[in-house]
Design brief:
The complex is a heterodimer of chains A (213) and B (619).
Chain A lengths: L12 H5 L17 H10 L11 H10 L22 E5 L7 H10 L5 E5 H6 L21 E3 L6 H16 L21 E2 L3 E2 L4 H8 L2
Parallel strand pairs in A: 1-2, 2-3
Antiparallel strand pairs in A: 4-5
Helix pairs in contact in A: 2-6, 3-6
Chain B lengths: L9 H15 L9 H10 L4 E3 L5 E3 L5 H10 L5 E10 L4 E9 L7 E8 L8 E2 L9 H11 L3 E2 L46 H4 L23 H9 L9 E2 L6 E2 L2 E5 L11 E7 L2 E8 L7 H7 L6 H5 L6 H16 L5 H30 L4 H21 L8 E2 L2 E2 L5 H26 L3 H7 L7 H6 L5 H4 L7 H4 L20 H25 L22 E9 L2 E9 L5 E7 L1 H5 L3 H5 L4 H11 L3 H5 L1
Parallel strand pairs in B: 2-5, 6-7
Antiparallel strand pairs in B: 1-2, 3-4, 4-5, 8-9, 10-11, 11-12, 13-14, 15-16, 16-17
The chains are: A alpha/beta (213), B alpha+beta (619).
Bound molecules: iron/sulfur cluster.
Amino acid sequence: MADAETNLPGTSAVEIKNDPRVPAELNNNVFITTLDKIYNWGRKRSMWPMLFGLACCAIEMICTAAARYDLARFGWELMRPSPRQADLMIVSGTVTKKMVPQIVRLYNQMPQPRYVIAMGACATGGGPFKEGYNVVSGIDKFLPVDVYIPGCPPRPEALMHGFVKLQEKIEKQSLRTVSWYQPGGDDVVPVPMLGPDMVDLRRSAEIAEKTRA
Amino acid sequence: MAEATTPVPPAAKTAARAEKAEKKLVITLATMTPEMMSLQEHFGADLIQPAPNEGVLIADSARLADVALFLHDELHLESIANATATDYVKEGYIELVYHAQHITGGLPLCFKTRVPRGDADTVGLPSLTPLYPGVEFQEREIYDLYGVRFNGHPDLRRILLWEGFNGYPMRKDWHEAYYEQDTKPYDSRWPGGTHRLAEERVPWADNVNYPPNFNPDEYKGIPDAGLYDTMRAEAPTGGPTDTPFLATGIQTDELIVNMGPQHPSTHGVLRMVVKLDGETITDLKLVLGYLHRNHEKIAERNTWLHNIPFTDRLDYITGMPNEMGYVQGVEKLMKIKPTERADYLRVIMCELTRVASHFWSIGFLLNDLGAFYTPALYFITEREFVMDLFDEITGSRMMNNYMRFGGVARDVTPAQFERIRYLVTDRFPKAIDEMERLLSDNEIVRARTIGVGYLSADRCVAYSVTGPVLRASGVPYDLRRSDPYSLYDRFDFDVPVLYGGDVYDRYRVRVLEMRQSLRILEQALAQIEQTKVGDIQAGKKAYVHRVPAGEVYSRVETPKGELGFYMVSDGGQNAYRYHVRSASFINLTALKEMTVGMKVADAVVILGSLDIVLGEVDR
Ligand code: SF4
């Protein structure tokens, strides 16, 4: 069951056959590859998304995971209700100011490596409700987003396409450079606060400056 | 094109538009119905006057409770369907609007009263919660968004926003950070404008606004004191931590647990705060607003037509009935009627939605019972057939944007009718049979649901509960029958009623309703043959609608219950006031009474049986 991706140059079965490092009787059982490749190959096929829906887009997310579109074909179906067990957050819907602190807290609780997909117009940039007083203009103002999926709501096919794009991104990562193995790579996002309006604590100096009467 | 026309300064244009609107504002007083007359007779013509457009006006807001008592006890208006407010900023008052109704059907009685804007959050007016517990959340919403104080309300706190939020956002003179102009189309965009991103116009490049001298570093946040303190205050004397439990000296703690807003069972971003004694729930409070998307404020800026797609996103499982309620209301104001074919198409779409929505809700009820996802898969598969049809007919699976004032957007082809017929006569009846075989006599389902979440008929009516929840408690109330709209008086169908008042009967009522929907669909599919193909729009298609001044409360029976649109037009291109009375929101008022005394695991099931959708709860 050699996977297409393992048949990359230097790893194909033919070359292994001729590799002097591999004994002849193991020729059909051993693959030689790089650590990055095997690491990424394993990760990208077993993403555990967080079971977490915000608005209308969540309904399409549920449909994508259901029998007809069957996300399980890609190894993505194991939705975990606990952020501790998840490594992908799908922000599926309108992000409101009241909800932002919880979303950021959930993100911080996810173990690294963690990824974020912004699903739909709302999570991407505010969507139809952008002008509303309780709506934030996209989750990327708070969290690092890996993949944006346009649509209102994106169709299940579009969501799957987003997943594939994320796989492509994961494939390109290298153990040597990924942030979570670097010293100080624990990028915890400060949780916004609810005051007279939503307060992004990273910008408190600017807020204090500009509100000075 | 933009250069050809000399641009008029936006301010002048806005002023001209406002002037025009003012001229159009003709005030017609409501005609008095017999019930209003008897009210007037009892209280005198000084206190009870005919109100502009609709209903009666109570001249002295302090006497609101007396009038309500009379309505409740003498006129037997058992429940208040809708309570809301309108801010008349020029006139300087906030008008409170209530729609009371008989549970036996008929038109609701509208009564109004006014408070000066300055007094609203200091003096306030009497709360109607002692008489009509169903207004509890609605009054909190008015307090939250309009800043009207209700004296005697048991728990008057902000509901959709958070404590400490600056201002009352639905007031007409309160402007959001991205505010550009009162009404659309904005002068910066049309005609020939060049628009700038909202982010570029505001000081923080973000959708926020702070009062002067606000220093976030010194701000400590406002604790959820109102929420937790009231729950703790009800603990037995001695405080929650040292209640002696048994004579043996074992002490138990009462535990306050938050479920949500991220929780696999809460059907979206709802937060339940429960107080537990062991596994038993002794108190429950809801925290809403995590999906408050300011639908009403945005809709008051939108043009009438512009607003149709927004209604799809209210209860995003049932887009079609939402559109129908809105479009019908505007048609009533415009005094037009859709063509017959369009009306049939609307009924067909709405009933297909009802079947799909009930499939969905039953699937997820099982989820809540612990049968995680597998049973739901069967029902989602059935729903997909409806989604495919909608996709083909309207261009979108969920957000259909199909209905128009006076008609619908597209006709249905004979081949599509054939598919609907196949679903209605073959596929769905079999699927429902299968579902019943699987569930109705299933021992686990019965053990977990019978007798759970009981709510009596009286309490349902008092809490203004509607939809399958009400009918499972033995009240035969369905707007399609009790206040018929569209073509529902042409079909032969039953209103299923059961008497258990528990989760099991709510499930059963939904099943029976699906069968009745199929019956309606069969008749509609036969009758639509007699209408003219392609005749789907009354009058000309138009993009600009001027809706005559007036006021309307239009309601439809969605799969969740009564969905009402209260709209005030001042004769312009936009609604002056637009309010959504949603079934999911008001049904939640009764959740506490259903859950107290039950186990934690049951709370999840009871919530599932209410079948709420957060888009409609928080709007
Ligand atoms: S993008 Fe559209 S469908 Fe998705 S949450 Fe926003 S409004 Fe709903």
